[in-house]
Amino acid sequence: MPNHSPRLVGAERDQLATPTDVAAYLGVPVKTLYQWKYRGIGPSVHKVGRHLRYRWREVDAWLDAQTSYDLTA
């Protein structure tokens, strides 16, 4: 009997995150993620069927690109 399950090879496949996962990681409400998606200002989001999913590497890249404030001034 053949095995039809997808093969995940180490770090070659990124695990997808739900909006709840990303909201918890960023410390913002899920509603904020939906607003960012609507405005086109948040991390890249992908539709999988009718569900929204994020790639962790894209969330981290978006976070790194955000402006930081100089708190020493």
TrEMBL record:
It comes from the Bacteria. Residues 18-66 form the Helix-turn-helix domain. SUPFAM superfamilies: Putative DNA-binding domain. Coiled coil: none annotated. InterPro entries: DNA-bd_dom_put_sf, HTH_17, WH-like_DNA-bd_sf. This is Helix-turn-helix transcriptional regulator. It comes from Streptomyces atrovirens.
